[in-house]
Every structure is written in structure tokens, then in C-alpha cells.
UniProtKB/TrEMBL annotation:
Domain of life: Bacteria
Protein name: Flavin prenyltransferase UbiX
Binding site for dimethylallyl phosphate: Y167, K183
Keywords (A to Z) from UniProt: Flavoprotein, FMN, Prenyltransferase, Transferase
Organism for this UniProt entry: Paenibacillus medicaginis
EC number(s) stated in the UniProt entry for this protein: 2.5.1.129
Alphabetized InterPro entries for the sequence: Flavin_trans-like (IPR036551), Flavoprotein (IPR003382), UbiX-like (IPR004507)
Membrane-spanning parts: none
PANTHER family referenced in this protein's UniProt entry, alphabetically: FLAVIN PRENYLTRANSFERASE (PTHR43374), FLAVIN PRENYLTRANSFERASE PAD1, MITOCHONDRIAL (PTHR43374:SF1)
Keyword Flavoprotein: yes
Reactions catalysed, as given in the entry: dimethylallyl phosphate + FMNH2 = prenylated FMNH2 + phosphate
């Protein structure tokens, strides 16, 4: 597999349900050698606590515990640090993924609001013409949600809703999570083997190869 050492990806985790998506994405990118710049919103930390039972009192400590054994470096930025490196267009990053992306964060990106580091980093991706991927996790969607997504899609943002597929015969929730992570990596042309693609050993009973780990 391609060595991605030296490549930088910004990952955002917001307060939408599905924090496991962002965790697995971060694990996989670090395993590939990417330098991951992680931003977690305040609501995102709450969801990590509620859904994954993380002890978020010591935020940097829990991140080191969860991700510290991966080959790629992890750089954590508090969401309030508007002067962080990733807030500047002169700091080169190869792309940004917000997974999961709340409707509030999606709206902030769609309207150019930069009142926190997550929205500012996304705004940098847009103004510099760099890849930006949003993974919304909300249902049902009303007209404002859809209009914001359409606006961003017209600007070149990849919108990948957290919608699982079943043609690859998932056997666990982990398989479904890694499928979504794989679809995000596909959108950035990042090589992976997280799920069995349509036409590749179709009907084979073997499990997909998993790069992520279970907590």
C-alpha cells in the first residue's frame, strides 16, 4: 500500500451522532502514516463521552491513549484556538474531513462563518481550493439542510452522508463503520482495503480486510 508519510489531513469531529466514524477515520489515517490534525468541537467531546464512554476530562491524555500507538503523528488543536496552524492558508494541508458533521457545522461552513477553528479550517480549504469532505449525520433532512448541502456541493465540497451499503455483506457494526470510512478515503483517492468492492470477489464469504481497530 502507498506510504502517506508527510501528508497532512485535517479531521473534524462534531456533536452529530456517530463519533465512532471520526475515531475510526483518525485511526486509519494514522496507520497509513498521515499527519492528522484533529479538531473536536465541544459538542463532539460530549458525544465521545456519551457514545463511546470516553473519559474526556484529560482530553490530550485520552487522545494519546487512543491514538498514540499509530505510526503517523497526531496534532490536536482545541476548537477555540483560532490562531492554530490550520487556520492559515499558508499552512499546507492535503485535505480536510469533518466526520461526523453536524448540521450546525455544515451551516457555518456553507455561510463562511469562522468563529471557531473547525469552521475556519474548513473555510481555508474552500478559499485555497483544497479537498473538503463533509459527512452529515442527521435524519430527516429539512429544506435548509438540503440547501446548505447543495450550496457546498456547487463549491466542490464532497458531501458523503453516513449511509451504509449492504452489497458487501457486512457482518458487524464495525464493517458498516469502516465502509463509510472507506468511501471517504475513496473521495480523496487514498488507497485502502477497508471493504470488499462490488465486483471484487463478489459473493466470497471472506471478511473485508480491516485497517482500523476496535476499542
Amino acid at each position: 500500500m502507498t506510504n502517506y508519510a508527510g501528508k497532512r489531513i485535517v479531521v473534524g469531529i462534531t456533536g452529530a451522532s456517530g463519533s465512532i466514524y471520526g475515531v475510526r477515520l483518525t485511526e486509519v489515517l494514522l496507520s497509513m502514516g498521515f499527519e492528522v490534525h484533529l479538531v473536536v468541537s465541544n459538542a463532539g467531546w460530549r458525544v465521545l463521552k456519551e457514545e463511546l464512554e470516553w473519559n474526556v476530562t484529560d482530553r490530550e491524555g485520552i487522545l494519546n491513549d487512543k491514538f498514540g500507538d499509530r505510526p503517523g503523528p497526531l496534532v490536536y488543536h482545541p476548537v477555540t484556538d483560532i490562531g492554530a496552524t490550520i487556520a492559515s492558508g499558508s499552512y499546507l494541508a492535503d485535505g480536510m474531513i469533518i466526520m461526523p458533521c453536524s448540521m450546525g457545522t455544515l451551516s457555518a461552513v456553507a455561510h463562511g462563518s469562522s468563529d471557531n477553528l473547525l469552521a475556519r479550517a474548513a473555510d481555508v480549504m474552500l478559499k485555497e481550493g483544497r479537498p473538503l469532505v463533509l459527512v452529515p449525520r442527521e435524519t430527516p433532512l429539512h429544506a435548509i439542510h438540503l440547501e446548505n448541502m447543495l450550496k457546498l456541493a456547487r463549491l466542490g465540497v464532497k458531501i458523503i452522508p453516513a449511509m451504509p451499503a449492504f452489497y458487501f455483506k457486512p457482518r458487524s457494526l464495525e464493517d458498516i463503520v469502516l465502509f463509510l470510512v472507506g468511501k471517504v478515503l475513496d473521495s480523496l483517492r487514498i488507497e485502502h482495503h477497508l471493504f470488499t468492492r462490488w465486483g471484487d470477489n463478489h459473493g466470497d464469504s471472506d471478511q473485508p480486510h480491516h485497517t482500523g481497530r476496535q476499542n
